[in-house]
Design brief:
transmembrane, elongated, two-stranded antiparallel sheet, 3 domains, 700 residues, Hypothetical protein af1432, 29 helices, mainly alpha, membrane
Length: 700
């Protein structure tokens, strides 16, 4: 029942992925000819099948837009309320400052009568208001602030809008706060040269009344600019039906390439808008199904564990869907260049969370799907494959964040070299190469350095275990390992030796050495519950098992697996590490106490469950190697004579017994692997127990 539900789930997520990608694909046909600038035309002679517009090049369109924008004058709206506020403020402050001015020693030297003083006050006030009104009538604008905030060049003319009436005026006729102050100061000096009046102007702080009353109208400016740019024609002529476009073997020059691009655009749009557009959708759906089917065939034949793991399968399909959606979004809205999308990130993330072969295959499928959409598909696919393969080669194992920087640099160099090679074959002039693409390649490489954070997120969401996490877990300063060292020092040393043996064996037969080492370090953490009941932690000659029945002792021994799982879950260790705890004894028996019970009570019926570990048996290469290493290391300590022959005989005896009990039937290990493992264990233990030189005693 559960298997059927899993199959239904996998079918549903696969179907949804196919449907979503099909819906995302643009509903346009696909031009049936492949071509490249500078290369010969490899198809039959092409005749124009219908009239179509000859498109302008990007540079031609850009020049026309620049020419139009040179005739565009930004709109500035006049705020008539500013002069009214300034006038009120000026009248109030002028009268107050004039009263103070008439009491000053400087003014008294003028010897004006009260009547003259009043006349001078009125004349000077009206004079200043007249100049202020004149300045505000022309308008004051702070171009420097607006240029900095809005980022446009200072124009020669502007559209001045007053009460919805627009007037084009030269920029010289508009004041800035600084030029307005300079103007009014110059006028006062000319018409009122007396030092007394100059001092009054300074005290009046005339620049505080010179505020902008012309403000940039962004909405109107952008609207008019957009209308002007919309008038730019994207075509520059018509290619009539029946016109010969290119002959077989002709080199595709700039003009021919432009004609082909124009035909391709119209051809695809016509197909997409025709009544038979559903045939295009069917064809696209078949292509998508083909790619997904290739992915499933790979998983079925080489990575069944991924295919049967719903979370991993969902992760792969979502990753493919994400990149297809991102590519379509970029191509549709032309927000950024398609080469900014870090496709090599697929190889880094999938390689770190799974393996290199799966990373490459998922990457190829994704590039094939997006290559159908990208312009100049062959160049796009070639570039992405080159960069992705180099990313895999440059990152055999992610252990340090600094490796991502190197991978980013290598990816950038790969993109740059391959793109430059393509450009040389397509452009007759080096200046015509789109050098800005190299900036996009650099940013692309920079994006790869952020994959470290993504890997962490995907680990938590989908339950993966990366090499980075394994390195963190295998650090002997990890709180749980320090706790093991403190409570069960003998067990800790045993775990270290088992880790060394297992890692050496996996390095030889192939597998994940970091995973098996980490699993070995934690496989016996359950012994912390009753450390004194395990011989490696017993310091004296007393053994607590001597006071217990054999079945009780066996129960304590087998329970260390159960306690280990409980401790691991409490400390939130990954399931892959917990697998090592559960399987390192498999479903085997506690042979010592089982045999002792059988010998003491030959006629008594044995409850074998009390003497049996809960299991399961190992089901991966790494867990199988750990079981062998654990048994061999523990038993080797009991050897009285540790010679190469005795060590080898012990290893053969233990592992052959495990084989006879079918402990490895679910694990991916061969007899060849097992013989290699025996050799590795033999050499390692001989080195551990080799004879030391006995130092002579000093004669007294």
């Amino acid at each position: 029942m559960r298997q059927n539900l899993n199959n239904i789930y996998r079918f549903l997520i696969t179907s949804m992925t196919i449907i979503l990608i099909t819906l995302l694909f643009p509903n346009i046909g696909n031009f049936k000819y492949e071509y490249q600038k500078g290369k010969p035309w490899m198809h039959e002679t092409l005749i124009a099948p219908f009239d179509f517009a000859l498109l302008k090049t990007d540079s031609e369109i850009s020049k026309e837009k620049d020419s139009i924008l040179n005739k565009f004058y930004p709109f500035y709206k006049k705020d008539t309320a500013v002069i009214a506020e300034i006038t009120t403020k000026f009248n109030t402050n002028f009268d107050k400052n004039w009263n103070n001015f008439t009491k000053s020693t400087t003014y008294k030297k003028l010897n004006h009568t009260n009547q003259t003083t009043n006349k001078e006050s009125l004349r000077f006030k009206e004079y200043l208001l007249l100049n202020l009104n004149q300045i505000y009538d022309f308008g004051i604008a702070d171009f420097q602030i607006e240029q900095k905030e809005l980022g446009y060049k200072r124009p020669n003319f502007i559209n001045k809008s007053v009460n919805n009436l627009n007037e084009i005026v030269p920029i010289e006729n508009i004041y800035t706060p600084k030029s307005a102050y300079q103007f009014i100061s110059k006028q006062v000096k000319a018409d009122f040269p007396s030092p007394a009046y100059q001092g009054f102007i300074q005290d009046l702080n005339i620049d505080s009344y010179l505020l902008p009353n012309l403000f940039y109208d962004a909405n109107m400016s952008e609207q008019v600019k957009a209308n002007m740019l919309s008038m730019v024609s994207l075509s520059k002529g018509i290619i009539e039906s029946g016109t010969r476009i290119v002959l077989v073997g002709d080199i595709i020059d700039d003009h021919t390439f432009l004609v082909l691009e124009s035909l391709k655009k119209d051809y695809e749009n016509i197909l997409g808008s025709s009544q038979n557009h559903y045939l295009i959708v069917i064809g696209q759906c078949m292509l998508i199904i083909s790619c997904i089917l290739l992915l499933f065939l790979y998983l079925r034949n080489f990575r069944k564990q991924i295919l049967h793991d719903n979370k991993k399968l969902l992760f792969i399909l979502l990753f493919v869907l994400l990149y297809v959606a991102l590519t379509i979004l970029v191509l549709k809205f032309t927000i950024v260049n398609v080469y900014l999308i870090p496709f090599a990130l697929i190889t880094i993330v999938v390689r770190t969370l799974m393996d290199s072969r799966t990373a490459l295959f998922v990457f190829i499928i994704t590039v094939l799907l997006t290559g159908y959409l990208a312009p100049n598909g062959f160049e796009f696919i070639f570039l992405q494959l080159s960069a992705g393969i180099m990313a895999i080669y440059s990152l055999p194992r992610l252990e340090r964040r600094g490796q991502l920087v190197l991978t980013g640099i290598i990816t950038f160099l790969t993109y740059s070299v391959v793109y430059f090679a393509f450009a040389l074959t397509q452009e007759t002039n080096i200046a015509a190469i789109k050098w800005e693409n190299f900036i996009f390649f650099a940013i692309n490489g920079l994006f790869l350095t952020f994959s470290y954070s993504l890997i962490y997120i995907f680990e938590k969401l989908f339950g993966f275990l990366s090499d980075v996490t394994l390195i963190e877990l295998s650090n002997q300063n990890h709180p749980l390992l320090r706790q093991l060292l403190q409570h069960s020092p003998g067990t800790f040393q045993h775990c270290l030796q088992v880790a060394n043996l297992a890692e050496a064996a996996i390095n030889k037969i192939g597998g994940n050495p970091l995973l098996v080492r980490t699993g070995a370090l934690y496989h016996d953490i359950g012994k912390m519950k009753h450390p004194a009941y395990f011989i490696e932690n017993q310091l004296g000659s007393q053994n607590p098992h001597d006071k217990l029945d054999f079945d009780k002792s066996a129960q304590i021994i087998t329970d260390h697996v159960k306690f280990g799982v409980k401790i691991a879950k409490k400390h939130k260790l990954p399931q892959l590490i917990i697998d090592f705890i559960e399987t390192h004894h498999g479903a085997g028996r506690v042979q010592y106490f089982y045999t002792s019970f059988k010998n003491k009570y030959p006629d008594k019926e044995i409850d074998e469950e009390k003497f049996t570990y809960p299991g399961p048996d190992p089901f991966t290469k790494e867990t199988a190697v750990l079981m062998m290493a654990d048994s061999v290391e523990a038993s080797s300590r009991s050897l009285k004579e540790k010679t190469p022959e005795s060590i080898r005989n012990l290893i053969d005896k233990i592992i052959d017994k495990q084989i006879a009990e079918n402990r490895f039937q679910n694990a991916d290990v061969t007899f060849k692997n097992i013989n290699q493992i025996k050799d590795i264990f033999t050499k390692a233990l001989i080195n551990v127990y080799h004879a030391r030189i006995e130092y002579p005693k000093e004669n007294k």
